[in-house]
Design a protein that fits this description.
Blueprint: E1 4-5, H1 8-16, E2 20-26, E3 29-35, H2 38-47, E4 61-69, E5 74-79, E6 82-85, H3 92-105, E7 111-121, E8 124-129, H4 136-145, E9 149-152, E10 155-159, E11 172-175, E12 190-193, E13 197-200, E14 216-222, E15 236-242, H5 249-254, E16 259-267, E17 270-277, H6 280-293, E18 298-303, E19 316-319, H7 322-331, H8 341-345, H9 350-360, E20 366-370, H10 374-382
Parallel strand pairs: 3-4, 8-14, 14-20
Antiparallel strand pairs: 1-6, 2-3, 4-5, 5-6, 7-8, 7-9, 7-10, 11-13, 12-13, 15-17, 15-18, 16-17, 19-20
Helix pairs in contact: 7-9
């Protein structure tokens, strides 16, 4: 279901009925979260404990996550004037979190925020970007276990004022059945346990290596094996990551001419639809209109980068040109939607964003990595020099 518009008065009435709240600060923006459920606020305050701050004089976003709302007979999220029914499952908070960050990203015009894992070595950040399920978290945690500093497993915020990367040290949640679980080497990192997973504060695993803003040392795009038959010769294939399956985006795409839609498949906590169009130019213009209309329901849009069927093969990492690096980094910017403040600050022109990225990446080694054996990938990263 698409988001619904609610009167401001109704939002304040809902907030007034919620006894629990916390304030979080992301990228200079203050978000106050209210809830009718103590565990909801405690969980978010725990996962984002490094971002909890005292209430400011001015809020950028005020939202409310309800565990039970009579208007939809289940969980719900209010953000500003928007109302979102949430899935009535234990994962309702995951969906609320994605939608909230979607709203937040629309306000960010002084950072480029990449969907990426980040570690630090010798005072410089190594950035791994790519789609969910391609191994960013796996490689990030393995490098942290081998002595790299932890900066993020989800977002890479790059300040536009000086091109420095800031840490995004949220807690990492890992299911006990995951192969990743044994990669967390320090018990000091364990913060909280739930029924099926544990939360780790990787930033606390080695306090002596606490992360500070730093320049980028290297950028690595993690890609799968591309099937040439998937993409039409003059067409385009996009993987569209949604905040929730209850979205109007799939129906809007199905009404476009010469388009094939498949999905959803779950990648991490994201429902993903794949759309293929025979005419790239005509499709992109129509799709940007849909993106503007449903900007709070689309978490990210990635060009097709292949599939990963195994991590047991030999990985391959190769340098890429500056042109290819700019193109791939642009596709992984979380706050690049047509309705967002970042693009508006650049006159609404993707060409201006590309020029900005060109300056950012001017002296940075950039690579494309087809993942495989974890030990071999670590060795490849170790050999990068700057």
């Amino acid at each position: 279901m698409p988001s619904l518009i609610v009167p401001d008065l109704h939002l304040h009435r809902v907030i007034n009925e919620c006894p629990y709240s916390c304030v979080l600060r992301f990228w200079g923006r203050h978000v106050r979260l209210h809830s009718d459920d103590r565990d909801t606020v405690n969980t978010l305050a725990l996962v984002y404990k490094h971002f909890v701050v005292p209430p400011p004089d001015v809020l950028d976003i005020e939202c409310c996550v309800l565990r039970s709302y009579t208007g939809c007979q289940g969980p719900a999220l209010f953000v500003g004037e928007s109302f979102y029914p949430l899935p009535d499952t234990e994962r309702f908070l995951d969906h609320a979190e994605l939608i909230l960050f979607r709203h937040l990203s629309e306000l960010i015009d002084d950072y480029i925020v990449l969907h990426a894992g980040v570690v630090v070595r010798r005072g410089r950040a190594v950035v791994f970007y790519g789609q969910s399920g391609f191994g960013k978290t796996t490689l990030t945690l393995e490098l942290v276990g081998r002595g790299y500093g932890f900066m993020s497993d989800e977002f890479c915020p790059v300040r536009l004022s000086d091109f420095m990367v800031e840490p995004f040290e949220r807690l990492v949640s890992i299911r006990r059945t995951s192969p990743l679980y044994r990669r967390i080497h320090s018990e000091r990192a364990l913060v909280h346990s739930s029924l099926d997973k544990d939360f780790f504060d990787c930033a606390a695993a080695d306090p002596a290596r606490s992360a500070q803003p730093c320049p980028i040392g290297a950028c690595i795009e993690i890609c799968g094996t591309v099937d040439a038959s998937v993409c039409p010769p003059r067409g385009v294939v996009l993987d569209i990551y949604l905040c929730t399956e209850e979205s109007g985006v799939p129906d809007a795409l199905r009404h476009l001419p010469d388009v094939t839609l498949s999905g959803p498949v779950m990648r991490g906590r994201y429902p993903v639809f794949r759309v293929a169009a025979a005419d790239r130019t005509a499709f992109v213009k129509r799709f940007n209109s849909i993106w503007k209309q449903y900007n709070h329901e689309i978490f990210a849009v990635f060009p097709y980068r292949g599939e990963i069927d195994t991590f047991e093969r030999n990985p391959v990492m190769r340098p890429i040109t500056r042109f290819d690096a700019v193109s791939s980094v642009m596709a992984n910017i979380v706050n690049r939607s047509p309705a967002g403040s970042l693009l508006a600050s650049l006159g609404g022109k993707n060409a201006s964003l590309a020029m900005l990225l060109g300056r950012l990446l001017a002296n940075i080694p950039c690579y494309k990595l087809n993942p495989g054996n974890l030990d071999m990938m670590v060795e490849m990263v170790d050999t990068i020099r700057w």
